[in-house]
């Protein structure tokens, strides 16, 4: 091992951002260590042809948008734990190993010393391959949400990295031994951990007013959220403010917001995918976000007060409930309450400061470093960062 590089492979299956972003955060650490080689791959790129990849992404987006009750039922079943549904889901994933043969060949060709699975579906696949000795490397798992469902828990995983003690308890409930679970927090990239300049100068650099209160609305890579309704609500808001919507890949929502800009009583900025989200977070005075594990961790890392809009979504509801259980500082409100709540926050610096979550125990700025060290010590016990 001493005369060659330690090879660490990260695998996720996501067309959004959270799973890959968490993997990249750990890769940043590993890339700075001599004699370590790390690679992040997407199962969708390795296992699927471009046509089937587009079909799967389109189908998933369709289900998320048009079948929320079905998606909610699936996750509700997995959160509660159902042996029959769990067995069937695992069988279905493993039955499709014929379509994932390319992924297996890809992983074998890379000859990793250790694999970090960043998605519940890849947990199922790697556990299946480990069971039948198609892979021999240790398989670890990184959970990128604050709550774990049953499908994360697989018999042949060697270690889990989770956000907190409650997520650890979730996995224990589904049969994972406590000795296999490390409470590390959710890793975020280094750029979210450093603040480089004054807020006013950064606002000017980004092309927005330096003296207006900046409300930043995040919808993730898919641009999910009632953006138009929120913009109309802001139209009735009193105060000296401006709003930036980041709509991700959602071109329709971006175009819809662009069409109403001239009718808004406040400065409205609409962005798609951005390569400097940390700068927009740093420049913001208030962040409105969906309750994704990585998104929330990034917001807490930058000490930003946050608001989460309550929606008819089981998956989001349980994440919000978990955040409450963890005593994470945030404000949850309905779309109808948004105007009143934002006005209250704009007029009260004390309330804004109380919502900032930088020093909260649920966020660990060293998560990526901790996980990196554990991965390397698993391969080489005497390794020191």
Distance between the termini: 16 Å
CATH class of the largest domain: Alpha Beta
Largest sheet, described in full?
Answer: 6 strands, parallel
Shape: globular
Number of helices: 17
Kindly provide the radius of gyration, computed on alpha-carbon positions and rounded to a whole number of angstroms: 21 Å
Succession of helices and strands:
EHEHHHHHEHEEHEHEHEHEHEHEHEHHH
Mean pLDDT: 88
User: In the CATH classification, which architecture of the largest domain applies?
Assistant: 3-Layer(aba) Sandwich
- Structural class from helices and strands? alpha/beta
Helix content: 40-55%
**Strand runs, count:** 12
CATH topology grouping of the largest domain: Rossmann fold
Within CATH, the superfamily of the largest domain carries the name Glycogen Phosphorylase B
Textual characterization of the structure:
- The strands form two sheets. A six-stranded parallel sheet has the order 2-1-3-4-5-6, sandwiched between helices. Strands 9-8-7-10-11-12 form a six-stranded parallel sheet, sandwiched between helices.
- The mean pLDDT is 88.
- The chain has 385 residues and is an alpha/beta fold.
- The protein is globular, with a radius of gyration of 21 Å.
- Helix 1 links the parallel strand 1 (6-12) and strand 2.
- Helix content is 46%, strand content 14%.
- The chain contains 17 helices and twelve strands.
- It has two domains: 6-189 and 365-379, Rossmann fold (3-Layer(aba) Sandwich); 194-355, Glycogen Phosphorylase B (Rossmann fold, 3-Layer(aba) Sandwich), CATH 3.40.50.2000.
């Amino acid at each position: 091992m001493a005369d060659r590089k330690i090879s660490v492979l990260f695998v996720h299956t996501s067309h959004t951002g959270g799973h890959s972003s968490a993997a990249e955060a750990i890769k940043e650490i590993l890339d700075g260590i001599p004699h370590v080689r790390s690679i992040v791959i997407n199962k969708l790129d390795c296992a699927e042809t471009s046509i089937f990849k587009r079909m799967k992404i389109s189908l998933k987006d369709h289900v998320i948008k048009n079948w929320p009750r079905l998606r909610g039922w699936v996750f509700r079943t997995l959160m509660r734990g159902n042996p029959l549904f769990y067995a069937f889901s695992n069988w279905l994933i493993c039955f499709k190993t014929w379509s994932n043969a390319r992924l297996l060949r890809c992983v074998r060709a890379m000859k990793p010393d250790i694999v970090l699975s960043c998605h519940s579906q890849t947990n199922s696949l790697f556990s299946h391959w480990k069971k039948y000795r198609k892979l021999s490397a240790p398989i670890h798992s990184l959970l990128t949400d604050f709550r774990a469902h049953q499908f994360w828990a697989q018999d042949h995983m060697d270690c889990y990295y989770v956000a907190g003690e409650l997520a650890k308890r979730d996995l224990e409930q589904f049969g994972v031994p406590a000795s296999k679970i490390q409470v590390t927090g959710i890793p975020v990239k280094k750029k979210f951990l450093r603040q480089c300049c004054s807020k006013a100068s950064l606002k000017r650099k980004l092309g927005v007013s330096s003296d207006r209160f900046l409300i930043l609305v995040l919808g993730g890579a898919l641009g999910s959220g009632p953006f138009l309704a929120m913009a109309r609500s802001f139209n009735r808001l009193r105060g000296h403010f401006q709003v930036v919507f980041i709509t991700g890949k959602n071109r329709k929502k971006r175009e819809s917001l662009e069409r109403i800009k001239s009718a808004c009583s406040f400065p409205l900025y609409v962005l798609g995918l951005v390569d400097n989200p940390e700068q927009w977070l740093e420049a913001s005075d208030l962040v409105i976000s969906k309750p994704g594990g990585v998104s929330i961790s990034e917001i807490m890392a930058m000490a930003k007060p946050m608001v989460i809009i309550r929606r008819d979504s089981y998956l989001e509801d349980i994440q919000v409930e978990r955040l409450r259980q963890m005593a994470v500082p945030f404000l949850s409100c309905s779309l109808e309450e948004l105007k009143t709540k934002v006005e209250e926050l704009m007029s009260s610096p004390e309330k804004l400061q109380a919502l900032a979550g930088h020093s909260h125990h649920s966020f660990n700025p060293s998560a990526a470093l901790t996980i990196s060290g554990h991965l390397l010590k698993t391969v080489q016990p005497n390794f020191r960062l």
